[in-house]
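quick one before i forget lol
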Amino acid sequence: MTARRAALEALRRTEKGAYSTIALDNILDKHDIDERDRALASALFYGVQENQTLLDAAIASLLRKPNQKLESDVRHILRMGIYQLGYMDRIPESAAVDEAVKLTRQTGHPSAAGFVNGILRSYIRAGKRTPLPDRSKDPLLWLSLKYSCPMWITELWVNSYGEELCEEIMSTFSGRPPMFARVNTTRCTRQELIGKLAAEGVEAREYPLLPDAVILEETGDVEQLKAYRDGLFHVQDIASQLCAAAVGAQRREVILDACAAPGGKSFTMAQTAADGCTVIACDIHSSRVDLIAEGAKRLGLDSVKARRRDAAAEGSKIIADRVLCDVPCSGLGVIRRKPDIKNKSRSELEALPELQYKILTTNAACVKPGGRIVYSTCTLNSAENAGVFDRFLAENGNFEPAALSLPGGVRRKIDEPEHELTLFPERDGWDGFFMAAAVRKE
């Protein structure tokens, strides 16, 4: 299988709902593609995922008929062709066009080969540019195309946060996101970890806002590092570390992590309590429960108890001092890590707030009097964030808001109550995130 065919097959699968990284990796591994072609397939696949809105605008500008319907394969092939022409300097124009035409024929669309050839050559004649509108006349469309972000997300963020903050969020989409880790303080100090990683050729730096966080550079495959295999750290974004800290785990307490997989927050909470609490880390899928258990074993955290449990189902009551509900969400705060999120439709996400509310209320019943509950998402959507938590407080009078204590250096960018915090993605910092806290009345 060629690199372009592999990228096309991965795009097909993600369009049908497959996870992007899993879809591509499965194809590359199955067909034993060499390193050079793996690199090209990855560049094409992720390039199209990240720039789909702008690529589609380029295609639309070259069609003779507005709103002309295209076969799914043909659209994917055009996206890949335009991406190669406009973004990949090392691929000759002739190769990009010829390979696209060939792929069109090979995938059962011979009648569209001439059409694909014509569109790509028209793109070359147009200077391989997609004109942007006048920002002053249509700022939403300008932002959408400039940062290749669907219009519905652009409208959501401009309406919620204003044009300036919306652009600040979108500007973090490009480039490689930073990698952070949480030191396993039950096994080593931060300085000891930095030294051990340096011995393996990995640069690790202190993250100034949190005492047990490090920034990792040029790690390669993290799981192959001896320091990782020895359980000296786990990879975790700063926002997630802040969320785990907001729970405030203490020794001899029972902590329920209702939606725990892959386990990072459970591990951090256990380490915060020096492995002296009980963290019940749950997920609905057995395979993901196994993932939590494997991580806890690697880190030597006996306090983490992985359990299969449906967070939205009544019953299986657990009485806990503290509960974390890190609920399934639209993921709009982590687009730079999962660019395919941008390509979801608004309708795919409409049912989420009701599910999130169900999970929150179900697990709030597990909080003992005087206990604390933290609700969190990795999205930037008020309907899933403050909308859910404000409803919870309004409909559950036995809970009252609890202020979040922020580390120095963490500043709010929008007006919100002290019991809620929205983190916006920073280019060299944390992902987009939301958290809110309440306590159960005595």
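fyi The first strand starts at residue 179 and ends at 183.
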